[in-house]
């Protein structure tokens, strides 16, 4: 057989050279055995780590532990030598160091595995929705709307910032900008997705979203991918049922299709990972109102950094305690206080809560957030006003409630959060090929 | 059975009301037959176009032409009335008009079909590559590199454009910007994709790209999606072979899975569409060098608006003449003059051409552009310099040639161009859910 790949390690043993060859297609490397008979044996003894080589040889049962076969080379061609300054020499490298060489880190065990799992999960997302007849919608990345209040936004412009055109009053004249007004990078495709769901019934988005928050944490990136399904005719219960099936489909796919990569993460990165994913897959997810959740937290006797009381946001410590200790499996917390949720969530009849849901899972807390949307034109208009927003800025969105409105619901899943959950990687910078964070936009 | 959808039309006939109900899941509407026995019959006689309704009834063979079955209603519930100002009353609407109500147009026959086809094609893209073991890579949207010269770029910033921070010399101080230097929206993920291919072997991207070109044509949008596979160990021939299989997979998927939608386009939008797609699917694609193509064009006797000569870019008229008249089927034109192609394309031994390819197809000309990449460090560095660019700006990119370089190739397909080709729609604004063009960033 003929194989091509990069030498992960080269070991010059007595009368034989071992090349550990990997082409990135799977976790395992292939051990290539080079005997002195080969014409370029002396050259190969000095082969540098990271070099690209092509090998012709015979697959034979391997006497070595940990591998069934090895490749007995009959011909080895060096395709591209690695300069001896190649930074990925055989030793442990810190993730911090590897971030500085993001263009090379896919050639390590860890990052090859991360990006294979990321790809498999992305495909699982599409499969899940397409099999159910959902229409994949590319909602816009550049948006003229800055009114969602979901976070700080990046401005998109072609104006000369050094000398922008000005109005007679001296303000920047945004009418001169590319889109003839201020424009930004999207923080969510939801409102656009709703418009399509109220016509195509079941849709989903899967695209990049942006936050210009200057927070340098292991969980925040300025650019990340989000999945946002939106379903007409769904109420909150239907929404949760779909989200549960979705999460289980993702877990099942990872466990089945990425078994080798996950075995690695389970061993080297996050002991207990595979059992945790398996547990999520096999659990029936609990459902509990926010009111009940607060009651259970209050009566738990547990000391929290942030005190719990009805009306307050649940903090990560509360969320984890709920899913890990109170219920011991994934739980949907539903029907949150109106005041702490977004204007578009459907008002419940109790006059104080909305039909929102968060899915909490062991180890990280919130994985998914969703809601039934307010489909009643008058209630929605009132909600927009009561949040201090101007209904006139939501003209097209309100149109969808004016012309054949229907109950609908949806949820959002941060894709990087999912990849972190499935791999056990703890820094968002390590699950994005080329991460963008404050003061960092290399490559 | 129970169905939910929107009334496309309501017809009050003698003693019976017909509601044409559609939920966006497929092209065909379901005819609902409402008899006077129903308690709310008088209400339903006045049901407005666009209203959302839920119907319980019995599926019966239909006496009407063009449909096998209809739904005899036993219960009809009006879920959301459409205001009588609903713009999509039953009549022909121009595409121009419908663009102004992009939030509603998915509820028309044409745009429901366009966006279902778009979604099916997106899924076909993923299937094709995932089945072959390609890793889907999310290359960055925000980039610090403005040096590719592939087109004008949008700036991304969080600076206050009205009063940006200044250096002592009075220039805008980009060190104060979010990423601590100038940043832009990407025009291509290729260079990042190459870095991943030289580690994972076979990868593809599928994400949004941007051009800040102020050109208001039917083919240009400021925001569009692009697919860019990149394969280590591939030469130009392998690249073309993969591209041919890819295009055929896309045609086959559209013809098989979107038969009803395509039948509509074939009838109403672009007569000959289905035959054209079928022809592409069944053809063996020709391969021809640029030099040969120029010779054939010169000797054709055909009059062109732009004269043909070796060294010039082929114009759309030349491309279409080649594929439609000279060859009569899709053709890869390969090995273009170095001067008219990008720096990263592999120099051929003849000293005057590069290993580039364009796939030309009947009706539109270029559908795909690709190349084998220059994998030789010295040749690539020289090429960068000879294009007037600074190799120091390509440090990480050149690293991939320094540390185990390997032959590799890839291509790019503009996704909207594909959707236009498969639907016959002639304006890019009509295949994007919410298009972004100069002076237009609504919704």
Automatic annotation (TrEMBL), chains A, B:
It catalyses: tRNA(Asn) + L-asparagine + ATP = L-asparaginyl-tRNA(Asn) + AMP + diphosphate + H(+). Its EC number is 6.1.1.22. It is found in: Cytoplasm. GO terms for molecular function: asparagine-tRNA ligase activity; ATP binding; nucleic acid binding. It comes from the Bacteria. Keywords: Aminoacyl-tRNA synthetase, ATP-binding, Cytoplasm, Ligase, Nucleotide-binding, Protein biosynthesis. Gene3D superfamilies: Bira Bifunctional Protein, Domain 2 (3.30.930.10), Nucleic acid-binding proteins (2.40.50.140). GO terms for biological process: asparaginyl-tRNA aminoacylation. The keyword Ligase applies. Its main location: cytoplasm. Residues 115-433 form the Aminoacyl-transfer RNA synthetases class-II family profile domain. Pfam families: tRNA-synt_2, tRNA_anti-codon. The keyword rRNA-binding does not apply. Homodimer. Belongs to the class-II aminoacyl-tRNA synthetase family. This is Asparagine--tRNA ligase. It comes from Nannocystis pusilla. The gene is asnS.
